Amino acid sequence: MERQNAGRIRLGMVGGGRDAFIGGVHRMAARLDDQFELVAGCFSATAEKSQASGADLGLDPDRVYDDFADMAQREARLKQGIEAVAIVTPNHMHYPAAREFLKRGIHVICDKPLTAALPEAKRMLQAAQRSEALFILTHNYSGYPMVRQAREMVAAGELGQLRVVQVEYPQDWLTEALETTGAKQAEWRTDPARSGAGGSIGDIGTHAYHLAGFVSGLQLEALCADLQSFVPGRRVDDNAHVLLRYVGGARGMLWSSQVAPGNENALRLRVYGDKGGLSWAQEEPNTLWHSPFGEPPRRLTRGNAGAGAAAARVTRIPAGHPEGYLEGFATLYTEAAAAIRAHAAGAPVPPEVIYPTVEDGLAGVAFVEACVRSSDRGGVWVKPAA
Amino acid sequence: MERQNAGRIRLGMVGGGRDAFIGGVHRMAARLDDQFELVAGCFSATAEKSQASGADLGLDPDRVYDDFADMAQREARLKQGIEAVAIVTPNHMHYPAAREFLKRGIHVICDKPLTAALPEAKRMLQAAQRSEALFILTHNYSGYPMVRQAREMVAAGELGQLRVVQVEYPQDWLTEALETTGAKQAEWRTDPARSGAGGSIGDIGTHAYHLAGFVSGLQLEALCADLQSFVPGRRVDDNAHVLLRYVGGARGMLWSSQVAPGNENALRLRVYGDKGGLSWAQEEPNTLWHSPFGEPPRRLTRGNAGAGAAAARVTRIPAGHPEGYLEGFATLYTEAAAAIRAHAAGAPVPPEVIYPTVEDGLAGVAFVEACVRSSDRGGVWVKPAA
Amino acid sequence: MERQNAGRIRLGMVGGGRDAFIGGVHRMAARLDDQFELVAGCFSATAEKSQASGADLGLDPDRVYDDFADMAQREARLKQGIEAVAIVTPNHMHYPAAREFLKRGIHVICDKPLTAALPEAKRMLQAAQRSEALFILTHNYSGYPMVRQAREMVAAGELGQLRVVQVEYPQDWLTEALETTGAKQAEWRTDPARSGAGGSIGDIGTHAYHLAGFVSGLQLEALCADLQSFVPGRRVDDNAHVLLRYVGGARGMLWSSQVAPGNENALRLRVYGDKGGLSWAQEEPNTLWHSPFGEPPRRLTRGNAGAGAAAARVTRIPAGHPEGYLEGFATLYTEAAAAIRAHAAGAPVPPEVIYPTVEDGLAGVAFVEACVRSSDRGGVWVKPAA
Amino acid sequence: MERQNAGRIRLGMVGGGRDAFIGGVHRMAARLDDQFELVAGCFSATAEKSQASGADLGLDPDRVYDDFADMAQREARLKQGIEAVAIVTPNHMHYPAAREFLKRGIHVICDKPLTAALPEAKRMLQAAQRSEALFILTHNYSGYPMVRQAREMVAAGELGQLRVVQVEYPQDWLTEALETTGAKQAEWRTDPARSGAGGSIGDIGTHAYHLAGFVSGLQLEALCADLQSFVPGRRVDDNAHVLLRYVGGARGMLWSSQVAPGNENALRLRVYGDKGGLSWAQEEPNTLWHSPFGEPPRRLTRGNAGAGAAAARVTRIPAGHPEGYLEGFATLYTEAAAAIRAHAAGAPVPPEVIYPTVEDGLAGVAFVEACVRSSDRGGVWVKPAA
């Protein structure tokens, strides 16, 4: 998957300064396949902090900004200005930042969830639709080869008609009131103003929801949610139980939690149809279990017999040499690069190039909004906003 | 756990003839610790079939019956008549059979669920309360040593205050319409007249529900259920999704399914509190995962360091030599024997002797009834009948 | 696998008194399928201890002995005397005890290893060959259904020509000098006079060696062993490393250890041929991994698709309801019963009835002797005595 | 672990052209933490192929060579010439290539094994010792965080005195005669002239051997090896069984195989001492099992409670987000960068910076030579050349 001779795409970044987490992940992901070169950034709204972060990264100080609108404006004018920007701020800043770049035709690679609230998500969709630029949402778990394999198998009918989807994403890092101890990540992720009305359901439930749809191809019809904030004083949910009804009759369950001791990032998806079942777990991402009904379960692995074209396309190294989180994340960057290169050539994005879109992002925010709405009403069935 | 010198308890059986499944399990379980001797049975309502089954088992033909009321009557009059009876018929026969023995003071060991319908379950409770005899319900998973260990740890506060209970019991054997092929087990288990209004939720969901309560000690307050019959023509649910609200604020999810390819008897329980989590799976029953919050997860095993008194009491062989389903089932028989011997001595059942009761059985049937009621109304929150 | 009407076989026991371990296992195993009834025993050479043990078990005091030769003599004369005897003493007593019963035509079910030393093992072979009675050696792991499955698959050529056998049996219970603390099991198992010259290699290495041969069908040609006694003062090996050369060119490695912390009874066998591989672990005995070369690995489970006739024959309960150590052990008793019944009818033992023989036992003792000999000479290649 | 402001180190590469495997791995590893920039290469001895590969990678054609000596000479003269070179050719070219750079003071990052044969390995040691430049050998498994954790725990005495080391590295990709089908990787790796006299033992056995020593800190005293070429016509071993005796009395077993169906890169290390055991497997690299004797086993994970300073130092992302093979490999590059920067500053390499050295490489080649020598003599105990 290494770059083949076409030159690196010039990348900027908004957010991701010294005390951030996801910014560094995006940078490693962007570097791995050598498709991008980070050349500009607005790492903080405080000039000194932004410059310090830019200096850490070896950037030209002239291209380190403390205002993203200013960055968008000036980069758009540069002959060798950025072609794409990674938005890695807290959720509530995604839209204000992205809009500045979109309206100047700079491609946006945006962290999830799309926005903190539904109205902004709709505006993001409009902004993206009005723009010539591409919009890539980093639901990074969709970059894992064996997730691609699962999607391909479902689409090929190997499970038959789908009946049941079980998806869960438990963590334990918010079991105690970490947000009161000065931990930045915990602070903003439990602050409705920055994170949105969903806590666990917004932060990780959206990943689970996206993964389920990405693999199954199913569309949500209605849901019934029971959200809890178990930790005293917490302003957003830290545990979410959701029943799902999909168009066509399949049923599902989704569980997200940040108060389940012993769970790190235990995202797990199981899909069952009338011909077979699949099971995949993020913490062992190189394996996909396939159980054709009436036959012994098979352990499919990345890079080996049983892994098809969709997985092979995004596989870097041989079977048994585990690829991990960064590689899956990098795949989205490499997909973004392929899309951007096609776009630059005036060609459509090739069908095998797959990444989560702004529409997926809107669906995710609508999902969170529906969960909160259902739960606020006592756990009734609701439909997500169209 | 072998018998120590007190003589075997004389046991009868109702049901469990040649083409049954659970009858043989009960017999093996009753034999393992040598506490019981099967001496009489009504294995079928057809005389020849009952006699043939009795002959297979080496019983005296005079004590093989084709009518359970007759059996109860005659055994009650014998000097060396049965002291206890195992009821292993389809669900709808549990009450009619048990009542005959209870009213004659013969202890009843009854398979689950207690009855096919709620009114009968209430009558069973009354019959048991009116009787001097003991009533043991074989929710056999409560006999596994590491389930006892989990219960003991929760009770000792090792998880702190409980917050979340995730329990599931998926199978795959009814993925297709097996009940139309002449398979006896599938026939009666999908027949509402014999099995009850619950399909998967009655057959295995009750096990999951009981296990969750047995370990957590939590009481159900309300539930919201979405039941499906995915297989065309099936008259009972084959997949059940249930949200749980426990008294005191804990929340739970329960999933039972008989249409999830790749799952055999994948009963799994996870319980989380503010100090730690536990995870146990029936297919690897000798292991219990304990994750104290902020410490590495520990793999506790039957018979080894970390397993306490409650597990040790029901452990037969050393760590690493797996005990399985029959041993767990046998433990309930051995608990029953301990209770019966205490009863015979006019003593109370010792507190360490633990088995599911008729009250547990009523709660299980009320749970099933509530699930069906909730789902029939479109998936609303309901309270189980008291 | 329950008894079908033929009456129980009368069983005696030598050894297995109150402070023993394996005696209780034999009794549970003998009971499970209801083929045997324990009616006599010599549980100790001390009369009071033997009587106390017999009383625990509800035996007629007249049939509880303190001298096995006396027991053999008297039982042989009884009209309803024992038909078979289980020998569950320390190793050095196997031969003296077994010989008394063999010469009186009483079938012997003997714990492993066959004897403490090679000369006795040869005498045991002769005694068994001279006797009309059957001899069954309880290498109990050969009773697990998925071990039978593995054996059947190898025999059917599913692995092609065998190349490599990896077998290991690590434990940790002798990591410290437990034998100096009064622990009976540790005492005799580390005492060369009672256990034999092999420590771990005799106690558990023989199980591993037997299992490898049972499944692979390969014959040992030569071995090279490096035995160690890591615990100061220990008189027998507590760790054994052995290289194996099989007739026909396959190669193997065998590791036994009683000083490997974290291992309970981690017997594991892997067999590789030019068409595929198999892997089985005693602590998860219901699963067998099959990896046909160039295809995804398959998880075969007891009672489910992929398990063939040999496994089905010794399976009691459905897939996903784990059978464990006692069930596998019980299978050897049930095989013994089938053989004894055939013998009583003057018929040959049916070919599907499989149990380890006195010849297997001799091979095991010869293996231990060869390991000790090889190691004593500095780790040279030696051939086991024919 | 991202670069902090110091500028990238200029890197060249020898080998790693279009049809290679490990070259791409080195490039991704070098990029991940942004410490290196690839600026020159001799990707093939054929000018066109080298240029084509260089063009793929976006290199300046003037800095793409077809002769490594020429490359070394010219780069050494450039003001902005390479500071380090990655040698990723087949084994027999490691020394001829490395020597050219070493003698010009260019740091060498060399793939394993050090050389194809022992005499060359000794010359490599001399060349490295005579050079001012650093020498880093990419036994990449030593870069995994939980391998660092294991090493740190052993060094801290958490296992007590070591007794037993079990290490294995089975694969299956050479189960058939792949080298006769035109597969480049199989061709050179089974060609003694390019790979060395060891087949599996040289290609992967050296990894296993290095890992065992890296974690345990033990020194090999003697070994006894039984090597086989199971595939007809194969000129090197494809399966190796080795007994190990370490200085101080610990014992070990090493198994490498390329004909074990179902194994991908199943490198696994287990180390046991008198206080506890550790187990680590390359295919689940984020987990380390720690079994303190007499306590429940603990599952230590990268980035979480129980992982200490040595692991934390080389950890990029949070627990539960798996790091894989490339990240472990990248760690060696980042260690190399730290060493190179210290060297450039005239400072010693900091003690926490850890990478395999030329001495480790010589020990590895001596190990292979000793295995071949032992096996050729029929499997006798030999000492590796000092």
Automatic annotation (TrEMBL), chains A, B, C, D:
Q: Quick one: signal sequence residues?
A: none
Q: Where is the GFO/IDH/MocA-like oxidoreductase domain?
A: 147-278
Q: Which residues form the Gfo/Idh/MocA-like oxidoreductase N-terminal domain?
A: 9-137
This protein's species is Pseudooceanicola lipolyticus
Molecular function per GO: nucleotide binding
What Pfam family does this protein match (any one)?
Answer: GFO_IDH_MocA_C3
Could you tell me what this protein is called? Oxidoreductase
Q: Which domain of life is it from?
A: Bacteria
